[in-house]
Write a structure and sequence with these properties.
about 650 residues; Thrombin, subunit H; 6 domains; six-stranded mixed barrel; six-stranded mixed β-sheet; 20 strands; about 45% helix
Length: about 650
């Protein structure tokens, strides 16, 4: 849903969002928008409608007919000048371009061109109506003509599709060709902003508004972020609670909390020797990222997406350096357009966030004193959530996904009336939106997927689970996830549930825990903590969190009876005592040397060194450093020490 600010500027995120709202509400004379301000009823005011990504907008007169909470209702006469301007705007956005036989690409207006540029051209190419026959694979000269503009543009493109009166063109990725096209778009947008009277707020107004807004983070804050990589991690991805100094939070919660603060700040994430830095602006967007090989990775992704050619890639890599990062450099050189930069930047962020989350434990620092760089390119957190959750759910074992799906398989999901995340902000693909519209409370998940191809079926299952996790949909049974598989230090299988004992506790569970405690009395400290003797110290906190989930005061087992609570306390006491010793490097090495033979430690160290080299070949220096650290701790040879120092120095970890 669009938002209106205190100045009366109504902002739509994209042209498709505006067209959908026009067809359902605006064409009938009504606006429904979000607003944080109070508006007096029955007063006519001047509003401006602004379409994001197109630098397009119109002014109109409307009457405030509803204002409650964060919702505002406006009424406009469709026959008025403003109503006709809104209708013309929607019609221009729906109009398609035509490719004539002489190679002229003709758009009805600048609005139609900018809409197509934001949705298609920047992401890959033109899709044009044409009555002529075009040879697929042929590269030629074309002319861009826009109604109402004197300027034209000559460019080269390759025909990639010609079927049924529809022709696809892909811009030739030659530096001068792309730079000329991008410069044409930049000048067109600059001229339209001047015509619209610069609807965007001035820098000074932004600073004044930012100074008046209460700051969530007033000083630097650090803590620990963890990811259990269990189904319960996905039970609710919507928490925006305030972070406390030294707190341990989920990685999802950390990112959402920082974005929800809506203030300029820097988030530093560190794990396994790798440092990742994200800069957020006052809108909660991620506007910059810096990490291992991040600039080179961005340029390589441009090449993979065929947004640039090999020569341009080489030139950009050669010019990298100083304060300018890869995104700024590519935009300044005219190698790509803003929409292309945004597309690749979002893909890069999804990969980075999921790679960090998969490591299980990360240290973080939120620094509100670091100013965010001024950037036109920025990624909203809502636009990251669905692809990120898709990656995270896909990484889970198949059994874990089935565990999440089982309680809701026969339930009928329904859209939440006031969801924490709006569908238009999440922006799922059009095909997935069509599927979600079928989930209206009358169709179960099982029924909705009947007859669907397996690959599509799996993707739709992850989509439904994501929507349930985000609170956009609700289904009976969601959240009632079965307990995860037992930890490796426990018996592989438990006996079937026994009848409750005299005190009300499940006798089978209590008996299993008693036997576990008896076994741990003779076990080494690593087993008591629930980790392998070769585990890196970074895994200790993750193990404690897992034990706390199973045996802590709030665990289901601990609450069943007094006897169960006592046994759970004993189990946690053993773990804490083991952690106290193993956190000390010298005592950890001494204890391991007593429990594990020299030959076994040396063999494990060699395997870790081999694994570290594989990680380096895959450009994962953080994992490599962690493996080499453990290899040196297990078998402190001079060769391993030298290799560890070299890797740390080269990758600056």
């Amino acid at each position: 849903m669009a938002r209106v600010d205190e100045k009366g500027i109504i902002r739509y995120a994209s042209a498709p969002e505006y067209i959908e709202q026009y067809e359902s509400n605006i064409s009938q004379g009504g606006f429904y928008v979000e607003s944080a301000a109070d508006w007096p009823l029955r007063q006519r005011r001047t509003f401006a409608v602004y379409i994001g990504g197109t630098d397009t907008g119109v002014r109109m007169e409307a009457e405030v007919v509803f204002s409650q909470g964060n919702r505002l209702g406006l009424q406009i006469d469709p026959a008025s000048a403003g109503g006709q301007a809104l209708a013309a705007l929607a019609e221009e956005m729906r109009s398609g371009a035509v490719l004539e036989a002489d190679g002229t690409v003709r758009y009805r207006s600048a609005t139609a061109f900018l809409v197509d540029f934001a949705t298609n051209i920047a992401a890959g190419g033109f899709y044009l109506n044409s009555s002529a026959d075009w040879q697929v694979g042929e590269t030629g000269d074309f002319k861009l003509v826009i109604g109402g503009l004197e300027q034209t543009l000559d460019f080269r493109a390759r025909v990639v599709m010609s079927q049924g009166g529809l022709v696809g063109l892909q811009l030739e990725y030659q530096r001068d060709n792309v730079a000329a096209f991008n410069q044409f778009v930049v000048e067109l947008r600059r001229a339209r902003k001047q015509q619209l009277g610069r609807l965007d707020d001035s820098v000074k107004e932004k600073q004044e508004r930012q100074a008046e807004r209460p700051r969530v983070f007033a000083r630097p804050l650090q803590g620990l972020a963890v990811a259990t990589r269990e189904p319960d991690e996905f039970a609710s991805v919507r928490s925006h609670r305030r972070l406390a100094e030294g707190a341990t939070v989920s990685f999802f919660d950390l990112l959402l909390s920082v974005a929800a603060a809506r203030q300029p700040l820097k988030l530093l994430i560190e794990s396994n020797g790798d440092r990742h830095t994200l800069w957020f602006d006052e809108r909660g967007r991620i506007v910059a990222y810096q990490g291992p090989r991040s600039d080179l990775d961005f340029i390589d992704r441009l090449l993979e997406a065929q947004f640039i050619d090999d020569d341009t890639r080489g030139q950009l890599r050669a010019e990298l350096g100083g304060r300018q990062d890869a995104i700024e450099l590519a935009l300044e050189r005219g190698a790509i357009a803003e929409q292309q930069a945004l597309l690749i930047f979002r893909q890069q962020l999804v990969d980075v966030l999921e790679r960090c989350r998969a490591r299980g434990q990360l240290r973080f620092l939120v620094d509100p004193l670091a100013a965010a760089p001024e950037r036109a390119v920025g990624v909203e957190m809502a636009r990251l959530l669905l692809p990120w959750l898709e990656r995270a759910l896909k990484a889970l074992p198949a059994g874990a996904v089935k565990q999440m799906l089982k309680p809701v398989w026969n339930s009928c999901p329904v859209p939440v009336i006031a969801p924490p995340w709006k569908m238009e902000d999440l922006n799922p693909p059009a095909g997935e939106v069509d599927y979600l519209r079928r989930l209206d409370g009358q169709l179960s998940i099982k029924e909705s997927l009947a007859g669907v191809d397996k690959s599509l079926r799996d993707r739709l299952i992850r989509l439904v689970l994501s929507m349930l996790s985000l609170g956009v949909y609700n289904a009976e049974g969601w959240g009632k996830l079965a307990a995860p598989p037992a930890a490796a230090s426990k018996p592989a299988a438990r006996p079937s549930p026994a009848a409750p004992g005299e005190d009300g506790a499940p006798a089978g569970d209590v008996d299993v825990l008693k036997k576990e405690l008896q076994r741990l009395e003779e076990a080494n400290l690593f087993e008591r903590l629930g980790v392998h003797w070769s585990a890196h110290p970074n895994m200790f906190a993750v193990a404690m969190q897992e034990l706390h989930r199973q045996y802590g005061p709030d665990s289901p087992l601990s609450r069943t009876s007094a006897e169960a609570a006592r046994l759970c306390r004993e189990r946690m006491k053993l773990a804490r005592e083991a952690l106290l010793v193993l956190q000390n490097p010298a005592r950890r090495v001494e204890h391991r040397n007593q429990e594990v033979a020299v030959a076994i430690r040396a063999q494990s160290a060699r395997l870790m060194e081999q694994k570290a080299e594989q990680q380096l070949n895959q450009q994962q220096p953080g994992e490599a450093v962690e493996l080499l650290e453990m290899a040196y701790e297990l078998d402190p040879t001079p060769e391993c020490k030298t290799r560890l120092a070299t890797v740390r120095r080269y990758y600056k970890t």
